Amino acid sequence: MIKVVTSAERHTSNREWIHSEFSFSFADYDDPSNAHFGLLLAHNDNELKPEQGMHEHPHHDLEIITYVVSGVLKHQDDLGNHADLQAGSVQVMSAGTGIHHSETNPSASEDVRFLQIWLLPDRPGLPPTWDAKFYPREMKFNTMLPVASGKGAEGALELGEDVTIYLSVLETNRELYYPQMEDRRTHIYLISGHLEVGCSEGIFHLQPGDAARIRKSCDLTLKGTSSEGEAEFLLIDLP
Fold first, then answer.
1. What region does 84 belong to: left with phi over 0, alpha with psi -120 to 50, or beta?
2. What is residue 156's DSSP assignment?
3. Residue 121: how many CB atoms within 10 A of its CB?
4. Percent of the chain beyond pLDDT 70?
5. Residue 163 confidence class, pLDDT cut points 50, 70, 90
6. 107: buried, middle or exposed (CB in 10 Å: 19+, 13-18, 0-12)?
7. Which of 59, 73, 127, 195 qualifies as a FRET site for 170, CA 20 to 30 Å off?
């Protein structure tokens, strides 16, 4: 089964300091029929204004993954971690028994766009951890690069759950094949460009901000279809 959720179907939260598009119930958006997709609780596409931010606040028992699409995102937490995350950086924060953190935009003139993903961990009460890594564009070019994984994928940041997150930048008319297992789910989110998703149920065309939620066995063909530039997308493999 494949369900396409269009950009227009997301919930928009537009404040003076941050613009967010919520793919699932979050903050002021309460929709019990759209609360999660398996272990995936949140998938937010945020644009944070210059010199603004989410000041220190707590989390516990969540796997929080952040991908910086453009700009710079400044991270600080009570574990002593400090980082200016450049575009192309991925951050993984396992909140565990509790962590306080802040995410701010240090630029005086440029917005920062970042995706934030919340997952349930495989078990509660673990010690909190943090890590981040920069992935150059060429590493994602015409391939699916694992950037965060609970399966020990080489070069990927470690997750506390049986989930793998891939990033890809796909040229027009280039195809990637992704075999989905019967007992797994797949979430695809198109960051930019245009993407064709093909499976036994047909061919689906994604535009920026669209997502595909896929369940049961469905071998996927992913094809870049942008008239200009490439298609950048994120794929999450989860139970």
1. beta
2. P
3. 19
4. 100
5. very high
6. middle
7. 73
Q: Count the neighbouring beta carbons within 10 Å of the beta carbon of residue 171.
A: 15
Determine contact, residues 209/19, Cβ cutoff 8 Å.
no
Stronger pLDDT, 182 or 144, i.e. the higher one: 144
Of 101, 120, 103, residue with least CA distance to 61? 120
**Beta carbons within 8 Å of 81's beta carbon, 6+ residues apart:** 75, 130
Q: What is the pTM of this model?
A: 0.96
Write phi, then psi, for 215 (nearest 5 degrees): -130, 155
How close are the terminal C-alpha atoms of the chain, in Å? Answer: 15
CB 199 within 8 A of CB 1: no
State the burial class of residue 232 (Cβ atoms within 10 Å of its Cβ: 0-12, 13-18, 19+). Answer: buried
The per-residue pLDDT for 203 is 95
Tokens coding 169: 């930048």
Are 50 and 107 spatial neighbours (Cβ–Cβ below 8 Å)? yes
Q: Which of 24-33, 187-196, 215-224: highest mean pLDDT?
A: 187-196
Cα separation, 36 vs 46, whole angstroms = 18
